[in-house]
Write a structure and sequence with these properties.
two-stranded antiparallel ribbon, 12 strands, alpha+beta, globular
Length: 495
């Protein structure tokens, strides 16, 4: 990966070359001119005309429907919301419309992971002091034979599941079965000196599993922690034309700018072909429907039209799990979450509205925007796109949106590496996370823990974990004055 120290060559800006930041060493200060990056028409409404007009001053800020959805769409959204919040129970049950949970699972409802439709969090303590309901461990192994290698090469699978425990660790089980085990996290505090002498402490997590109930893991098992991401705006991200995403990819860094975003090419079960990955921390799913089906199966053990297996993530090494009662019913087409219910959840997910910008004209926010561009953060956090046509949903169509993501994979350095490939993503690559709504995380989810595993306890810590292709931007941030760092964070919080 070619990286270079930036001269911050942004039109209208001048700056000095930065010294590289490193743990225990302070970078040189940065001088940036006062020339501002002007606001463009529409930036105050990041979701275009679909941006919510409802109040964002409560924990429901992420739970509003898209503006312009219409009366029929509003009714469908509300039904989807009820299903999203539903607490599922194990089968058999007198509540046949809500049974089929598990047999192994991580949560009883979608809402339990996506707190108020927002971001999950790592547990405050290890089991049994706390449980990891909105965070889990992905599991996989390297390919073991030619069949595994063929499946990966043809993109029919993104990973080879761990043979005993499957694709993810389930820490809860229905009555009469054992759960699989519990995630254990150890944190180590590491100091980082910034350019003005401020010392920030970053916490580096180490992951393991305790109390395995079904035997040892494969010796080559790879673990990857995942926090549930916020749900807002996913229908708009899905509506970005594929060509507009692909045109930003630069796998070989041909323009020599140190940024080499790549697409993830993954299998679409819905269309039976390889498709562009958009969703998930490594862009492992091509659509909202397939992301939802994967969550129903892996997190709750529920069958859907796209993943009809009622045993969820159970494996051949867990016969009691495979043979447990399920909630498939003729009424729902032989599924636990029938086609109609599933469609309502997908529609609900697609229409969780983006909130408007806050403090849009604050001078400190505008100063932060200037710094954001000066440090070239927008090279990956692409400010805007225009959506294409969405069948049956004109309110999501042809909208200028401001998500601040390119939906591409980027090398984020060794510090954030999970060393677990997923599709075309290697162990150091992650999809650029959208920034819209970030400043409302504390209000909605009750915390400010960021990145794929929640290790960052603030936006500043999240920035300082950036490396790889983002190293020069991170170094530039570390070299800023305290006032400029605060201004940049205010800008990010305003999105």
């Amino acid at each position: 990966m070619r990286l270079r120290l930036p001269l911050l060559l942004v039109p209208g800006l001048t700056a000095v070359c930065l010294a590289a930041a490193a743990l225990g060493g302070a970078p040189a200060p940065v001088r940036i001119s006062e020339a501002a990056i002007p606001n463009e028409p529409g930036e105050e409404s990041p979701g275009g005309s679909a941006t919510t007009r409802d109040s964002i001053d409560t924990r429901e800020a992420f739970s509003h429907f898209s503006h312009g959805i219409g009366l029929e769409g509003e009714a469908k959204f509300k039904v989807g919301n009820a299903i999203f919040r539903k607490l599922w129970v194990s089968a058999p049950s007198s509540t046949t419309s809500s049974d089929g949970l598990g047999p192994l699972y991580n949560s009883r409802s979608c809402q339990s992971c996506h707190l108020k439709d927002g971001r999950g969090r790592p547990p405050a303590a290890n089991f049994p002091a706390d449980t990891a309901e909105s965070m889990f461990l992905r599991l996989s192994i390297p390919p073991q034979n030619d069949e595994h290698r063929r499946l990966l090469a043809e993109r029919h699978v993104n990973t080879i599941n761990e043979p005993t425990y499957g694709e993810q660790l389930q820490n809860i089980a229905i009555q009469g079965l054992d759960n699989e085990g519990h995630m254990h996290i150890d944190y180590k505090e590491e100091p980082l000196a910034l350019g003005d002498g401020t010392v920030v402490s970053l916490r580096r997590p180490t992951y393991s599993i305790e109390g395995l109930k079904y035997g040892p893991l494969h010796p080559d098992t790879m673990l990857s922690p995942r926090v549930a991401p916020p749900m807002i705006g996913v229908g708009l991200l899905e509506a970005i034309p594929e060509a507009d995403i692909r045109t930003r990819a630069d796998a070989g860094d041909k323009d020599k700018d140190g940024i080499s975003g790549r697409t993830n090419e993954v299998w679409s079960a819905e269309h039976n072909k390889v498709a562009l990955g958009r969703f998930g921390w490594k862009a492992g799913k091509p659509s909202v429907r397939e992301q939802a089906a994967g969550a129903f199966a892996g997190d709750m053990g529920l069958s859907t039209p796209l993943v009809p297996n009622p045993s969820g993530d159970c494996t051949a090494a867990q016969p009691a799990c495979l043979n447990a009662p399920n909630g498939n019913t003729e009424r729902d087409g032989g599924l636990e979450v029938g086609a109609k219910l599933f469609d309502h959840v997908v529609f609900y997910s697609q229409n969780l509205a983006v909130p408007p910008r806050r403090n849009f004209n604050d001078p400190a926010v505008n100063r932060g925007k200037t710094l954001f561009y000066a440090l070239r953060c927008q090279s990956c956090h692409t400010p805007s796109f225009t959506t294409g046509k969405v069948e049956g949903q004109p309110h999501l169509s042809k909208q200028k949106i401001w998500p601040y993501t390119d939906l591409l994979l980027h090398d984020m350095g060794e510090g954030l590496a999970d060393n677990r490939p997923e599709g075309m993503a290697d162990g150091r690559e992650w999809r650029t996370a959208p920034l819209w709504g970030l400043g409302l995380t504390r209000l909605v989810s009750g915390h400010t823990q960021f990145l794929h595993d929640g290790r960052a306890r603030s936006i500043e810590e999240a920035i300082l974990w950036h490396a790889g292709e983002a190293k020069s931007a991170r170094d530039g941030y570390a070299a800023l004055s305290k006032a400029d760092r605060e201004a940049l964070i205010k800008f990010v919080e305003s999105l």
